[in-house]
Structures are given as C-alpha cells and as structure tokens.
Amino acid sequence: MVAANRLKVALCDLAMIKLSGHKLTEPAVLDKRRTGILLPITALPSKDFASALSVYLIFYPKQASVVWQLLPLGPTHIGRFSLPMFICLLPVTPEVHYVLDWLCDQGYLPKSILKDTVTVERKSHYLKQAFRYLKNNRVRHNDYLRFIVKQADWLDDYALFMALRQTQPNRPWINWHQDLRDRQPDRIQSAKQELKDPIEQIQFEQFIFAQQWQQIKDHAQQQGILLFGDIPLFIAHDSADVWSKRELFILNQQGEAEIVTGVPPDYFSAQGQRWDNPHYHWEFLDKTQFRWWKQRVGIELARFDLLRIDHFRGLVARLGDIKQRGHQPSMVIGCLFQVRSF
After folding, report:
1. What is the pLDDT of residues 249-299, one digit of tens each?
2. From residue 71, how far is each of 33, 126, 270, 273 by CA, in Å?
3. What is the phi/psi pair of residue 239, to 5°?
4. How far apart are CA 130 and CA 144, in angstroms?
5. More confident residue, 234 or 121
6. I need a labelling partner for 114 at 20 to 30 A (CA). Which of 23, 200, 276, 337 fits?
7. Do residues 12 and 307 touch, judged by C-beta distance below 8 A?
C-alpha cells in the first residue's frame, strides 16, 4: 500500500513536470493558480487556427495566466482508444477545412480554390497540388527534407503504415499478408519503393500541420498562454507503434496480444474495466531505460508547455492485466518493479 501511494504521488507530480534537456525540473508555471479551458482543436468553430486562437484570447486576456488544455492531436480510426500512432499530428480530414485556408495564405495554393465546394476528392487533389508546389520551391522543399530527417524515428514507420493501410482496404495489420505483417526486410523495402508517392504525401501532410502548429505555439507564447498537451498511456493494437515495434509489447508470434490492458474491480466498477490495448513488455522497456517512452514524451514536450499522461490510473491501479481470451479483468503478478522504475 505504501509503495502504491508513493507511486501515485510520483505520477501526480510527473503529470505536471516539464523536461529540460534530460533533467526533470519543476517549471515556474506551478508557482500560482491559473485559469484555463479544456478545448480540443477540432471543436474550434473557425476554419483557421490563428483566428480561432485570437477569439479565444478575447475571453482570456494575457493577465489571466491562461492554460489551454487539449486532447491528443493524433488521428483516429475505427476502435476504442484507437490511434494509428500516438505522436503523429492530426490528419488532413474532409471536415478540417482550415488546412486549405492556411495553404492558400502561405502561397501553396491559389486563393480562388476557396470558392469551390470542398469534397474529399477535391481536397485530396488540392493537397497533391500543394505538394507539387513545395517540390518546385527550393527553400520550402529543403525545410520539408529537414523535417522528415529530424522526425524519421516515428514518421517513416507512420507514413509507411498509413500508405499500406490504403492498399489493404483498412484491414488491421494483423490480417495483412505474413511478409508485411512480420515486416520482412525485403518486402518492406519493396513496399517503400512501390508506395513512394503516397508515403511522401503523408509525410508532407504531417509537415504542413507541424508548421501550422508551431505558429500556434509561437502565438500562444507571445500572448502568455500555456499549451497543455495530452499523451495516452496505452497504445492501440492496430497502430504503427505496435506493428513496427512489436518487441515493446506482449504479443505472440503472429502479433496477437497475449495480455490486454484494463483495471481490476474497484470502487468505480464492480466488474472492472477492459481497455483492450496490448500490454507493454515492461521488462524489455526497463532494459532499454525506457528509450521509446522518452522519445514520445520529448516530442510532445516540444509541442506543449505542459503534458498530461492520460491516464496514470492504468499504473496506479496495479495494471489490471487481462488474459486476451477472458472477459473479466484479473490481477496478474509481475512487472511492478519495472512500472516503479518507469
């Protein structure tokens, strides 16, 4: 009980701590009470982030010590708690029209296109047109190349994964042909060549959103607004993370989850909760000094001033491990040392 309470306190502290280089430091943002709001970016009424942020500032002026808390920025696909990768940015979806406005303002596209009715097909066409413009603009193309090199550790796998999904009628990777499912080197290399164009297009879309997000962060910083991000604790099975880094999770030889996440019966739920995410291989993560987790947190802290791990109850509640074939959460002994180390 004492160890569990200490872990809970430590994680509560961790939820509001910012990394400075490789050292944990307590930021000045904790020195006073602050006002704020939880507002997902997809809930903003404006088509343009910057103008939406300006409207937000009318209600929360600089002297108010404002915190803007957001939900995860990653795209979603079918499934509960299901994101194709937790550190990618929002995709250019049909309902998110602000991207075209921004591309026009930045000169990627002519403003005359804004008069058109935006359909999925038209938007895809415009985004490809914007990418062609970038490739013919030496300065911006060099910025793009630097971005994909800097973000290669996650972006390469994400772009390939999403491009492959387009060829697999959105089937989960566990149902792909064995050579793709198991990432056989020759097949992966040939897939990168075959899907070169869609891979580069996906990388471009991440690039332009990253640029736009940086503008938002700069604007917020100028106005004294702190951006409060959200990083999910567990990973969707049908994701680039699990597909490309199977050694981090408890899976069988076919890539199926042997143990999934959840919470044992408690005050909140007499039956417990089944979350269905594949469980981490905590012993392996500990041996690597949690390198993958440090990378995730580091990338998110470059985007936000504060970061919340959502939600650390998954650790505090003793990691309710559930055998994949069962239905009820159950306690499974093990990995507590690695969790405390994390």
Report:
1. 999 999 999 888 877 777 777 877 778 888 889 889 999 999 999 998 888
2. 21, 28, 28, 22
3. -145, 160
4. 13
5. 234
6. 200
7. no
- Other C-beta atoms closer than 10 Å to the C-beta of 102 total 20
Predicted model pTM: 0.81
For 307, phi then psi, to 5°, come to -140, 135
Q: What does the alpha-carbon distance between residue 20 and residue 246 come to, in Å, rounded to a whole number?
A: 30
Q: What element of type H or E holds 255? A: none
Q: Do you know the residue count of the chain?
A: 342
CA atoms within 13 A on the CB side of 335: 22
Give, as one character, the DSSP assignment of residue 29: G
Q: Where are the beta strands (DSSP E) in 191-303?
A: 226-232, 259-263, 273-278
End-to-end CA distance of the chain: 18
26-32: average pLDDT: 66
Confidence of residue 125 (pLDDT cuts 50, 70, 90): confident
pLDDT at 54: 58
Token pair recorded at residue 106: 């930045």
Residue labelled with tokens 């009715």:
117
Could you report the per-residue pLDDT of 100-122, keeping only the tens digit for each?
Answer: 788 888 899 998 887 777 676 78
Distance (Å, whole) CA 83 – CA 232: 10
Q: Could you give the CA distance from residue 69 to residue 264 in angstroms, rounded to a whole number?
A: 29
At which residue do the structure tokens 């897939």 appear? 191
Pairing of strands 18-20, 66-69: unpaired
pLDDT for residue 6:
36
Q: Does a cis peptide bond (omega within 30 degrees of 0) precede residue 281?
A: no
* Cβ atoms of residues 282 and 234 within 8 Å: no
- Residue 30's φ and ψ, nearest 5 degrees, are -90, 5
